[in-house]
Amino acid sequence: MDYSLSNDLITIKVRGKGAELRSLTDNETGREYMWQAAPEFWGRTSPVLFPVVGSYKDGESRYNGEIYKLPQHGFARDMEFMLTRQDENEIWFCLTDKTETWDTYPFAFSLEIGYRLEGRSVQVLWKVTNPAEQEMYFSIGGHPAFNVLPREAERTTCYVQFDGVEKITSRGISGGLALHETQDYDLLPGGLLAVTEEVFANDALVIENNQTGKVSLLDENKSVFLSVSFDAPLFGVWTPPGKNAPFICIEPWYGRCDKVDFAGSIEEREWGNHLAPGEVFEVSYSITV
Questions:
Q1: Partner residues linked to 34 by β-bridges
Q2: Which pTM does this prediction carry?
């Protein structure tokens, strides 16, 4: 089931499955900013990644001597959330652990996802609670995809702007796992990176260590049409390579895939999070059009 929320300027639609933001439109122009999940490119719009961002090494995590198999980006994006609250400018959903999650993830949890409209912005709100009497380990991230014009041959029709920096450093990715090597990208004036096939030829840009807290999309005239602001310590920028896909993902993350040679337990994962019994983890990011 889809749920709608509007103010005077924008309207969003959220699907109960995965509590996924499926649409963000301008009320005056009707412009749709969210990718509409055409399967020939990518069949999702804005999945929430939980309890893992990216992939475990060999698809497995280890905890208390046991092995748990979990697919890339976890299970929350494919599960039905319960609507818990909706008012004029805000809507909330909740997912809790159950029998079908225990075989792949050995922790009790409550995952609440909210959306709040503020002018021309959507605040995306995450609240993770540990209801158990043992430590809980998890990652969480966003994967929103935004419409851009398709590229034609060598013509650039989109730029990504990294706020306040002249260079970014990206972690290498191979086979869905992180490499030890990194690559530097010298940006155009204003922190711009032209979107080309070469940029994403080796998968997503994985940008760690709080290099910036705001990433924007610009059209071919270098005019900003959308910005994502966040406090996340790392984020991804992605479009599928070799497809000339008409969307760009800007992905705030609290977690990351394992490295190619990782051999530790879930407690030892880089960029992971943990909660003591009864503790709560609350973060957010915003999309402004």
A1: 146
A2: 0.96
